[in-house]
Amino acid sequence: MSLYLQGLAIGLAYVAPIGMQNLFVINSALTQPRRRAFFIAAIVIFFDISLLLACFFGVGALVERFTQLRLIVLAVGGAVVSWIGVGLLREKPSMDRSVDMSLPLPRVAVKAFVVTWLNPQALIDGTLLYGSFHIGHPGADGTLLVLGSATASLLWFSGVTLLISCFSSRFNDRVLRLVNVVCGSVILVYGLRLILQFFRQIL
């Protein structure tokens, strides 16, 4: 298997598990027109690939080297993640297509940034994964791995958006509310776990 295909396979394994990015893209595909949903997915892909590159070129090394920075990431990230979870639990989405559900561009970008760059687990996991890539595969080899992983991000989020938007007509307000409750509960529990990790490390 070429290094590019290895990067593609590892990238898919990295982004496929349901996380904040996936939930954000899924909710967008359910509530936005298809064209708008793909636009939002493109923004998420941009931030995901930018995080990949940052992890590959050493942001993770700072987190691993400086304990205080790791604590800050856990505390701030845990609070932000919990806030997102509570927001999903309180939200009452509607599938009424007569209502303008489009988000302003700055708000889309901020939310995409939050679910990507302020996700401590993504930052730490990405650091360990792609940081080791950089050490073990310098130069052109590392570039191929990164390109493969970037392709995985593009294919995954575009595919999820297409699949969900094609079947969005099968969803109603109750189903969408259920999705938000489940997703919000998972995210809230995850955020509280991050905060718990923070307190465990300082005590």
Short note summarizing the structure:
By secondary structure, this protein is mostly helical.
Distance between the termini: 46 Å
How much of the sequence is in beta strands?
under 5%
What's the average pLDDT?
A: 78
Treating each run of at least 4 consecutive H or I residues as one helix, how many helices? 9
> How many individual β-strands?
0
Backbone shape: globular
Low-confidence stretches: 97-101
How many distinct domains? Answer: 1
Largest sheet: none
Helix proportion of residues, in percent?
A: over 70%
Order of helices and strands: HHHHHHHHH
Rg calc? 18 Å
Structural class: mainly alpha
Describe the structure.
This protein is an all-alpha fold and 203 residues long. It has one domain. Helix content is 82%, strand content 0%. The chain is built from nine helices and no strands. It has helices at residues 3-15, 20-31, 34-56, 59-65, 67-90, 105-117, 120-136, 140-166, 173-202. Helix 2 runs antiparallel to helix 9 (173-202), helix 3 (34-56) crosses helix 7 and helix 4 crosses helix 5 (67-90). Residues 97-101 have low confidence and may be disordered.
